[in-house]
## 1
Amino acid sequence: MKNACCLCFAFLFISLLSYAGEAGVPEVFRGHAQDNKLYLQYDDLDTFLKTFVSVTGWSERQKAENIDSRVGTRLKVRINPLTVLEGNKFYFTAFDNEQVVSTLADMQASLMSLPDEIPLPLLSTDEQLAYWLNLYNFTMLNEIAKRYPVYSMSRYLDPEEDKYFLDDKVMTVAGIPLSLNDIKDKILKEKYDSNPLILYGLFQGNIGGPGIQKRAFRSRGIWRTLKKSATEFINSNRGTYYDGKVSVFYERNLNWFHNDEAALKAHILTYLGGEMTEEIDKAKSLDFAMKDWQLASVMGDQRSYGGSGATNSAAMLDSVVVSGSALVPTHMMEEWVSKTPTSTRLSPSQLAVLDDLRTRFAVARGSVSVTDLSEEEAKSDKEQ
């Protein structure tokens, strides 16, 4: 009995220690498992992303030429020739299909409800990071789907605009209303000590932001994936350019660098290569000038797009027109409809692990019942 009580308080003490540095995080999301025993499955997200994301390859820092930006004969959309060829693209025209939009909403709802079944503190820090990144990105896609057709994200990403939605409470997780900025700045920023690599896993919907991945995030290799995304972004015209010009994306997230341009510059130089390294290094101050608000949409003839090995120009050049002019290929739609699984997030063996961890979690949270002892029991216990 005495040993059991000591064990309960030991678990509680360990749990409280894991909350250090998470004071601003809702209590239900604080803490983590010391050992990674639960691995979440995201097969449904994988199928969705593999179907609708086009990988265009790394930037060649080329300027697009002879781009026809017309829709019909009347509407023209501004296209940034320095950045339009860069970054992974998404078949946003799929949002014209009600089944796609409905299934996307179902997947986002499934992610929101996961902490009702699996308390997040039972997951490792990397497993939690993968969860939050996936929830953020699929919520972003879902919010774009609600507003589609969209040609520019400036009205939605600029806090000064009336259509800005990043502060809107668009989801409820474990009973807590959350916005996209809540995930980014109140949960991820605090739980991961403002590690800026996390920013490159947050899709913003526009060309000028970090590219969307072709697979869902998972704990295994997650930091390697984020470093690769950071390197791709920083070594593109979207991220850096001559005379110390950098993306406005950094200006909007300068708080992740303690509002210190020197810290931001050091971060960029860590991943920057080529002739642009000297341009950024010698700059007395950074100029937040590089921007492209256009929707990161696959546009034009889909036959021009290749796999992850395709070069940027081969994938995009001579095929760029305004978003919404290209339809999702029929064969892609059929593949997605037939292969999208309904994920349970945990395999049968993992469900057994979950049952055990739930018991331990209840103890660690201090779920200990206290019963008054009778006088006879108290006397007996004292004698022992």
## 2
Amino acid sequence: MHAEGLVPSLVRQKVPRRAVHGVLLLDKPLGLSSNDALQKVKRLLRAEKAGHTGTLDPLATGLLPLCFGAATKFSQVSLEADKTYRATVRLGVRTSTGDAEGEVLQERPVAVTPQQLLQACMQFMGPIQQVPPMHSALKRDGKALYEYARAGIEVEREPRTVTIFSIEVLSWQGASIEIEVRCSKGTYIRTLAEDIGEALGCGAHLTALRRTGSGPVGLGDAYTLAQLEAMSEAERDACLQPVDALLADWPVLRLEAEDAGRFLSGMRRRTAHADAERLRVYGPQPAAFLGSGSVKAGELISTRLLSPLEVQGLLNAQASQ
């Protein structure tokens, strides 16, 4: 058969995309990049538009919120959210990358008491300064730091302020400890592990990392790729959380029909609502999510808006459920 004869066949095999709106909580597997995971789920859902909410390293597993359709407008919310991780830390060994992939740079004996471990963890509570690791996706002159590191080049990094809200020691077996860390955005857990090791005088590196929480969403509502692949399309659609799922811990403001229309057009409106930096805004019952906004000096200001088409699509979806 001539090559030209294959073209219609290939065109017919192309899977059509569709409008999908919502948030899917993925339990990302080990060894897969965040973007690879996103593309796999996007194909399973046949979604037209998708985005993830911040990079989770290939060596890390756990919660990766994926946004589809209208929900992509609010992915930044998850980027800014506080995170919770479970980390396994190997004491006594320091590596070139701060994790198990790097070469061993130094080994030291581990003679640590529970009280010393607790004190070391307490040193890093609250606002702290962290220098981003060379083996990270942080960009310098358009290139990720890990690319410089692989070329044997070390570049100067400015320390930045992050906040550690809590560190809890979950288990301790030999030289391996498991900790749960709740922290602000931008925290490098591998750097925290190394710093705890240095505070103990024995060094340390990260051997496993699992994200269990991001803002108001948690791993308990997440699905694995294997689970999604085994489902029908209707079952996958049922796994989607609402477009406003990442804003679930924000205050709510409801508007009557006329004000809802004005809000969707981007017009500012007077309101009796107290001043607030961030709000979820809804139309009249049946409640349609319209977008996010803020109130300053008694004035409602839109920050992210759904299009009227998207709002109608969400209402239609609600009605069909």
## 3
Amino acid sequence: MQRLIVLASVAALSATAAPALAADPAKPAANSQCFRVSQIQNHTKGDAKTLYLSVKPKKAVYRLGMSGSCLAGVNSSDPLVLETVGGTDLVCRPLDLDLKVKLGPGGLTPCIIKDITRLTPDQVAALPPKVRP
């Protein structure tokens, strides 16, 4: 009898975990805001952990939060090296983009992107002018 109860408990747990495992983590969420690297117009540094991107055609602004202070010592005029993962230039989540900042001749500083957020028009308007891309 105990064996039957244990098997029933395992079956019930497996059934409830199956839908969570069925979700494909490689696909973006239905409500995510994606952009194409080829449509980035401009970038500015907010602080040592924040980068802002201006993306056309609708002048959308995205905030990229870094997991470390990879932007310390970087100017907004320093070039970015952006490489997408997965054979497309579509970015929907942090793992879709490999970001490095070029510092001087031959120096690349890698950044690990923690989060990507599309800002609302009010959030963009609230940014200080020097960090608004």
## 4
Amino acid sequence: MAQTFDICIRGGGIVGKTLALLLARERLKVALVAVPGAAGPALSDVRAYALNAASRQLLESLRSWPDAEHATAVRSMHVQGDQDGAVHFDAATQGVDALTWIVDVPALEARLAEAVRYQPQVEVVAAPAPAALTVVCEGRASSTREEFGATFHVTPYPQHAIATRLQCERPHGQVARQWFLPDGILAFLPLGGPQGHSVAVVWSVPQGEAAALLALPPEDFAQRLGEASQHALGTLTLSAERAAWPLQLARADRWCGSLPPAGGKAARSWVLAGDAAHNVHPLAGQGLNLGLADAQALARVLHGRDYWRSVADLRLLRQYERERKAALVPMGLATDGLQQLFSRPEGALQSLRNWGMKGFERSNLLKNFVARQAMGNY
């Protein structure tokens, strides 16, 4: 007898696997379709994500949180403007153990893959399988999204992100560092545990400069990073390849819809989640947090449905869409506004934004509010 599924998830990345595990807890039969090469092997080697407390709690509930060596707690965050403006966040001030955790992507993916392997309600399949509900988690370049008739509205930024890893002369001290520079935004994210000397780099640079930076010999590229980071961690050495991708702000117009019934039988629907539904600038490190929140919200909506409602019920899926679109608005506005503000070279704007950073640093109430939002404590 042919295998039947309640839900087919197209995309076996972090969001797809997390959603599959959440739905399996609801006793739903899930087909998980892997998308070969969705991120690319080079990018997979150097990526690291900043995950907040809400994401950690979710992944821990699925027994998929990496060990301490691959999930480094951030005790403080230093943000430097392009003049003398600066903002500092501290975990102790917030009354928490960590502001966020920098998670090594291969380690997280391995833990999720192991959890999926031992979950009998989830079957990894090579091609899309018929199901009442299809969830699209294929990432920003999803082909299924277009196939289902959703329009992806993209606003490209004139920047590329360059990611790599560094070995540093000085220990990072569990500090995440970010520099808003006249020609880009640079972040050093601590890796390797409390005593680590390794950082993940995300450098947003003008698109016209990306190719030249990627072509530099490793020693010269590390020297450029040292200059941009004001030599905060001493001598730097590249410890991984470099990867780059264009940056954009994007959101699908529709996140759900109906599909023709299979063989004239029960209704079928589709829904988007993660980067297939939305993209934001990486400067706030919230991209994966938003995607994991999508997975959690969709699982919660399906869990709370009336017993007689199908998982394909569009009323449920539209409830999820409204909730997540509303949650996305403030983060999208904040990251886009900061990107636009710090991409302008005019002297008057430089003075204004650094004055604003100084005022923000002195405003404990506003700082605490922003910190709690970023940590996932709403």
